[in-house]
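Question thread 4412

I'm putting together a teaching handout and wanted feedback from people who do this every day. The idea is simple: show students a protein as raw sequence, then show them the structure tokens that encode its fold, then repeat with a second protein so they can compare. Below is the first pair exactly as I plan to print it.
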Amino acid sequence: MATRRATPDVVEKVFVHFSELEDPRIARTRRHELMDVLVMSLCGVICGADGWEALAEYAESKQEWFEEVLGLQNGTPSADTFRRVICALDTTAFEACFRSWIRDISQRFEREVVALDGKSLRGAFTSANSTTPLHLVSAWATKQRLVLAQKAAVGGASGEPAAMVAILKMLDLKGAIVTTDANGCTVAVTAAVRAAGGDYVVTLKGNRAPQLAHVQKTFAQATDSAMSKSSTTNSGHGRQEARIVYALPAAGWEWPDWCDVRSFVMVERVRETSEGQSTETHFYISSLKPNAELFADAIRAHWGIENELHWMLDVVFREDDQRIRDQRGAENFAVLNRLALMLLRNEKTRKVGAPTKRKRAGWSNEYLARVLTCGLGQPE
């Protein structure tokens, strides 16, 4: 292997965080070092590459820079090489390297909302299962705007609870408030949140009919003086919406297997438009003591995972359009997408959105290096 010259700090960081990753290839057949392929892959995704052919074209267009940075002996990899390497990497080990990098740029989670939710990669199928797309569950730190971990849900959305439990076992969430939709309203998920050091606020719907009926009855019988209450109103786009949040102590809860249920929460959303008024009511359970204002903030923050993560991956990274027909490859490419988005988000010197930052990184090697080193002890 050729000696690397003037190696940017970020390449050393890639080496640090991915150093434990095992190269699955036979040694005598390797023409490109694993770390070289990973550096070029990450750089390519940051700059807009969305598949194997795009990675190969990007690497070739930046060959001179990569030769300077990496000391390549055999030029840049072909599309088949990118595909074979990324598809062969162990998904659990690759995601663990991602979490190592995220830990390097994350802070404490005291009272931060960490949202758990799933997203299907509609273009990602395996040849053995051409009807159910790959479904990934992510943990999203809403204030720091970081993906903390991801896990594939076996069987699509129905597998979300097991994936959530697996993610929670990976993380130290001391002081965090973990939120989920109704899929996460299970005994196992609530216990895993508490074991990870966090509190939970989870949506309660008809999939938990006895528990939902109990909470609804408790609110129906409660007096105003017994409830904590918070209300907000906003308007825009031709509508006005009022949100009223009520919280009660979890009285009469008859299911001891559920871990530390301390509060019931009810949220009423009243919308007024030119077509009239509509009201929606939603219920939640929580391990926190009744505090309507805190619950209002946490429930509102939960949807940041849709707007700031899933939307960005769909619209900016066009993740649903990435036709990767190998589940392991699709899962690993999803890690690259999320790491690229996190690094772009953490680069603060350019006051522009992620799409423009991706273009600039493709135009300027200097800016690309800045994106790759942001949040890692480098001055911004």
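The second pair follows. I'd like the answer to focus on this one:
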Amino acid sequence: MTPPAVLIAQISDLHIKRPGQMAYGVVDTAQALERCVVHLNRMQPRPHLVVISGDLVDGGAPEEYAHLLRLLAPLELPYCAIPGNHDRRENFRSALAGQDYASPHGAANLKAAIGGLDVVLLDSSVPGAPHGELDPLTLAWLEATLAVASARPALVFLHHPPYVTGIAHMDRQNLRNAPALAAIVRRHPRVRMIAAGHVHRAIVTLVAGVPATICPPINHAVDLDLTDARVPALRLEPPAFHLHVWLAGAGFGEVVTHLLPVGDFPGPYPFFAADGSLM
């Protein structure tokens, strides 16, 4: 019997502030998360796991994490998270103390096994800096983790994308030691996808021959300036998230990623009438 598909919903860059505060003076990130939680709870079939890939809060303050946890409380799905550059690692660990971290201190790496799939989460945050880097202990942990159960497919999540996107002010903040990550991925073909956040746009490319994605935002998008002609800015585009679907099959199976807009939309409407004719 073919194992069932594994569904991983990815949301990213929540940027939760203290109650009543707006991000950048215009974005109600708390309302955006509330709307997304309602959408996730309504999904059928339901995702097996929600991965939150960094920047859970905007300034790293304990009050922000307390507000975040209140907003996530109605979520009826299991979730796990890694920090981004807007998080503060110590406060992040304190707020999400129930996660099974690979180490009690330092980078907040962790792994989850969902059915026939491994979900590996890497902490790429650098305390006090906007760019990303995987420290030597994280790289060693990733190598050792991927060497175990080498027949199981794995998805790797981190906050900072290990490649450039063409948006200059974001590319200056990407993963600084991306070649080290790519080298490990090449040695472990069970890695089927690398998924990041940080850029607030849906982006797809290849890293070390593996599909690599960036999660769209549930709140505000980064302005798509590919000429570096404008000041860094945001846009209020339709909110969305990624649904990664692992399908068992030959070798390590297949992974497909769907972009899902957040909200209520008309439909579904049938294509065919009762007599089988196209409507």
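Top answer:
Good format. For the second protein you could add a caption like this: The chain has a mean pLDDT of 96. The chain has six helices and 13 strands.
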